[in-house]
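Incident log, structure service

09:12 report received: a user says their structure output differs between two submissions of the same chain.
09:20 pulled the input from the user's history:
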Amino acid sequence: MHANARRFLVLMLLQAFAVGLSSLFVNLYIWNIDRSLITQATYSLSSSAAILLSFPLCSLHARRTSPMASSRVGLVIFMLTYATILWLREDCARHVVLLGSLFGLAVSFFVIGQHMQFLENAQDAQRDRFLYAANFLTSFAAIVAPLLSGWLIRHVAGPAGYYSVFGLSLLTFAVAAWWSYRVQGQPLGRQSNLLGAWRNRQPRWRGMLWVSVGSAMVEGSYTSFLVTIMAYSILQDELAMGAYSALVGLVGLLSSIALARSSRARHRMGIYTSGALLVFGASLGLALLPQTASLVAYGVASAIGFNLITTSLMAWSYAAIESAPDYAQHKLDYIVVREIPLGVGRMAGIGLFLALHAAFPAQVLSIAFVLFSAVYLALLPALQRIWRPTRLSLQNI
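09:34 re-ran on a clean worker, output below:
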C-alpha cells in the first residue's frame, strides 16, 4: 500500500472517530427531548434530501478545485453542524430540518473525495482488501469513540455531558481537516458529462443503480435511526449504549481483519448472501424478543453482516463504474449520477416508515425493523443476474 493510500486511511480514521463520538448521541439527544419517531424521521429525511440536492454542486466544486478540497469543505461543514448543535442546545428538536440539512451537506462534500480515493488507490481485484482495511480502522474508531462518549455523558452532570461530546467531535473534525492537506488526489478535467453517465445502458451499471434504490431504503430509516432507538429502548442508558456500540465496533474490526486476508472479488456473492442472512435473522430475533441478550446477539451478528453487505455493494458499485468506456475521463460523473437512486431510495425508505407509523403506531418499531432488514435478501436475485460470471471473467479468475 503506497503512502498516499495510508494517509487517506488515517483521514478516514479521524473522520470516523469524530462521527463515532456524536452521530449516535445526536439522535439520542433529540430523542430525549421529545421522544418522537416522527422527529427522528424528519431529521433523516432532511439529511437525505440535502445529500441528493447538493451532490451536483459538490461535484462542480470538486472539478473546479479537487476532490480532496471538496472533502475538506465537508469536514468544515461537519464542524459547523456541531457548532450549531452547541448553540441551539435544547432547541435542537425544533430545528431538525436545519441540522439534518447541514449534516447532509457535510456528507455530500466529504464523500466526493472519499469515493475518488477508493477508486484511485486500488483496482477492482484488490479493492475488497482495501475496503476491509478502511473498515478495520473505522471499526477501531467505532470501539473507542462511543464508549468515550457514553462515559462522558454518564459522568458529566446534566446536558453538559452531551455538550462535551459534541465539542470533542468538533475538535476532531478540525484535526481531520488539517490532516486532509497531506492526502493527494488526481486532478479532474473541467468538462462534465453527467447526461452521458445517466444514459449509459451497460447492464451492470444500470442494474447497480436499481440495486442502490433498494439498499438506500434501508439506510433511510433502519440504519439511520431505527437501530439506535431500538437499542436505547432496551438499554435506557448512554454509557450502556456506548458499550454496546463498542462491542459492535470490536466485532466489525475482527471481521475486517479476517476478511481483508481472505476476501476475493469472485467471493462477493457468497459474502453478500451470508451478510444478508445474518442481518435479517438477527433483526427478526430482536424484534420478537427485545431484551438485552437478544440485543447483544443482534449486535454481533449485524456487525459482521453489515460488514459483508456494505463492502460487497461498494466493490460492485465501483466495478460497475470502472466498466464504463469513458470511466477515466468521467468517473466523477458516475459517482454523482449514482447518488440519484441512493437519494431517492433513502427518501422512499423514510416515506415507507412514515406510512407504517400511520398504520401501526404501537408496533411500528418491530415491524419496520424486520421489513427493512429483509430488503437485502430481496435484492439477491437482481444481484445474481447482474453479476452472473461471463466467459471472460471466468478466464481471469
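09:41 both user submissions now match this output. Likely a transient worker issue. Closing.
09:42 reviewer note: The two ends are 22 Å apart (CA to CA). Residues 203-235 form the longest helix (33 residues).
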